[in-house]
Amino acid sequence: MTEAVASEPDERVPGRRWTVRLDAAERGSNAVRVTCSRPSCAPQRLPSPAAGRAAAVSHLKAHLKATAGPRERAYCACRAESCHTHIRSADRQARAQPWRCGGAVVLAVLTDREGRWWQVLECCSRCAAATPGAQIVSPAQAPTPQAPTAPAPATAGRPATTAAGAPRFSDAAAPDGGPRPVPSPRSVPARRRRTTGKIAQRVVPHDLQPVVLRDELVELGDLFRAYQQRAEPDLALLADLHERKARAFHTWAEVTGDVDLGLEARRAEQASAAARAQHLQRVGGGPVGDGPAVARLLTVPAQWQHARSVLAHAGDHSPLPGPEARLLTVMLTLRTAHTGAGNLVGQDITALGLTDPEALVERLTGCDWLRVPGTAADLLASRPENPTPVTVPSLVPGEDGDGPFAFGKKVRPKLSGWAQKVVSDKKLRKAKAPAGARLLALTLAALTLADGRLGPGGRGVGLESLAAWCPVDPGELPNLVDLLSAADWVAEAALTDTCLTGRLTERVLPLTCPLL
After folding, report:
1. Closest by alpha carbon to 513, among 211, 304, 329?
2. At what angle do helices 435-445 and 412-423 cross, to 10 degrees?
3. pLDDT of residue 185
4. CB contact at 8 A, 245 and 261
5. How many beta carbons lie within 10 A of that of residue 231, not counting itself?
6. Which regions of the chain are under pLDDT 50?
7. What digits encode the pLDDT tens for the residues 126-184?
8. Which of 59, 300, 405, 425 is deepest in the core (most CB within 10 A)?
9. Phi/psi at 369 (nearest 5 deg)?
10. Domain ranges of the chain
11. How far is CA 384 from CA 5, 245, 343, 347, in A?
12. CA-to-CA distance for 308 and 447, rounded, in angstroms?
């Protein structure tokens, strides 16, 4: 009989697992895509993250409603990946005994804090209880009671079970000769638990010192949970919460020496920056919570950063000194950034306010930074109906297809159009501003806050940082600042020995690339 039982096949089946994800549909758009790991579910495209999150939750609920409850003979799905969701590798090595799954099989739902994915697991109740943030949505089903059968005859003084099938403790009979019933379980006194807080799936220790840190962590946990219950998102508030969380977790990591807390703090800093950037994008990049939105020519923070990367690249790889050469280098870089090649007409160069554009083009072609099929005079004489193809060899992608910039062919013309709009500003042209003034205007447009104040935090732009992107003589800088002030480009400008302070006027705010 033992051999027959040992040869029976294992009828247990792997636990089910599926995931619903929320991802960005494309760059520069609020649209999102909802996907489900089940092969029969087609992806959905939604116009906003809020609509996508609602659709993802609805899709998950529909699956749970249509899915049968947990199967009694299923393996724990968490066991298939060595229970990595609740046992870290360091903890596993420290354990004297390996983790053992156990308990009834349940359906549990996991989700990340940002609401980007939801996962359903068919796992054991022990793993569900140990996994941070796991919510049991379908407990194990009670066994179906079977119809009572006729009691077997008692033998050798051993009474049978009652008609209701009540179990007995032992084979011994009660003093009255009847079956011994199962006594009721003892009442267990409730243990007094100390109240504590929870944040980011972490329990805040009740004895954490200093007390002000413990109170801050508990309060932040409550604020995050309250934010999740809001009907409408407030990204400015969310950014502030993540910023407070980053400071608190940095302090917590220093107090306890826990490296994971420091990593959590850095993730909170990144989440704060992302939420603030999304808020600026939604309000058009205007001052946070104050004033009308600004319709900027470059609409998203990624484009602002790409514009600054071009100015920095031109500063590091300019083949010739001086503001005129730098301005022409920037404009040619923007025209050829994606493939190293582009088309130019004479007006693209003559409109930059250069002293001798033909000689400057010849110097760029003489050092082989720029290549044109004809002469510099031919390039300056070309018209829109017959543009001149030009090549910048240093911008041509390598064998791996990678170039010096991360933006694609759709972003490049937007950046080029932005720079052309700045340097050909109507009031700068009417004032016959030299190339140095136009280059300074382009540099300041990329180094302002959302409200137009210059430099990080509105504290101004350091002259050393300014010289890296706008190589003008220090003695000429006051005259250029005065020219920009007269052209209604800069207001409240103040130039010291170390920095330039002030703000850009409302007229040119649509041309700015705010610092985040």
Report:
1. 304
2. 130
3. 47
4. no
5. 5
6. 1-10, 143-174, 179-180, 182-186, 188, 190, 192-193, 285-292
7. 888 888 778 887 775 554 444 444 444 444 444 444 434 444 333 444 455 554 454 44
8. 425
9. -80, -30
10. 11-138, 199-282, 301-399+407-511
11. 88, 55, 9, 9
12. 8
Does the pTM surpass 0.70? The reply is no
Query: In whole angstroms, how far apart are CA 288 and each of 43, 237, 272, 293, 439?
Result: 35, 11, 14, 9, 29
Nearest to 82 by CA among 101, 105, 102, 95: 101
Rounded-to-integer distance, Cα 243 and Cα 16, Å:
38
Both tokens assigned to 321:
């000194």
Write the CB contacts of 99 (distance below 8 Å, at least 6 apart in sequence): 83, 87, 92
Number of alpha helices (DSSP H) and beta strands (DSSP E) in the chain:
17, 13
Q: Is the dihedral of CA 320, 324, 328, 330 positive or negative?
A: positive
Burial of 383 (0-12, 13-18, 19+ CB in 10 A): exposed
> What is the spatial distance between Cα 387 and Cα 374, in angstroms, rounded to a whole number?
12
Q: ω into residue 510 within 30 of 0, thus cis?
A: no
Residue 237, Ramachandran bin (φ over 0: left; ψ between -120 and 50: alpha; else beta):
alpha
Burial of 11 (0-12, 13-18, 19+ CB in 10 A): exposed
Tokens 């899709």 found at = 59
| Phi-psi map region of 368: left, alpha, beta (phi>0 left; psi -120 to 50 alpha) | left
Give 17's strand partners. Answer: 121
Take residue 307 and report the two structure tokens written for it: 């514009």
Report the chain's C-alpha Rg in angstroms.
Answer: 35
Structure tokens at 511: 């041309």
Distance CA 228, CA 223 (A): 9
- The residues, ordered by sequence, that sit 6+ positions from 369 with a Cβ below 8 Å of its Cβ are 319, 329, 392, 393, 394
Q: CA nearest 110: which of 134, 81, 82?
A: 134
Q: What is the C-alpha to C-alpha distance for residues 386 and 348, in angstroms, rounded to an integer?
A: 13
Beta strands in 200-275 (DSSP E): 202-203
CA distance 217 to 212: 9
How many C-beta atoms surround the C-beta of residue 167 within 10 A?
A: 10
